[in-house]
User: What shape does this take?
Amino acid sequence: GAVVSQHPSRVICKSGTSVKIECRSLDFQATTMFWYRQFPKQSLMLMATSNEGSKATYEQGVEKDKFLINHASLTLSTLTVTSAHPEDSSFYICSAGTTADTQYFGPGTRLTVL
Amino acid sequence: LAKTTQPISMDSYEGQEVNITCSHNNIATNDYITWYQQFPSQGPRFIIQGYKTKVTNEVASLFIPADRKSSTLSLPRVSLSDTAVYYCLDTGGFKTIFGAGTRLFVKA
Assistant: This one.
């Protein structure tokens, strides 16, 4: 089946630093990947759609200058949380799919900002 | 806004069959109905997908009536390890929006 990986699985950083999270589709190519954020006991919230070779599309209320997305190849999308603050601490999950009907999700990245 | 609604939580006992129903009041003609399972601190895992009638795989069955306004995920003989959050979604559009999900708790 389709496999999506994320790296790192967890990261702890100091307030004000930037953190990069990678999302890879291991056995298929994905022109579109999605980034979600999930707070404890809550559902996944779509942050942005990552498009290979073009700019990402952000959901309303998500700061594009704070959450930088780069989709440089058909198997890799990166999310950079710039100048991270404690309120950015969350579980970040990416997804990709071979069709629009089915998305496969990465294992998630736990970000803790001190 | 999420397009589906489902019960917030359900309790069951080991060995029982569990049915989780979802409302798809705004499903588009081209959308599929997809169910995911999520354990704490993990990404959602694909369970099953269907368009109409019944679909069965090795872990679950999915029942979809002719009007496609609802779906029922059936988990046969649940075990403690089936304790998780289950999400139903309309998929096939440009992006996938999650609802609140159903938190299933299986007791011994």
About this structure: The interface with chain B takes residues 1, 4, 6, 34, 36, 43-46, 49, 91, 93, 95, 100-108, 110 of chain A (CB under 8 Å).
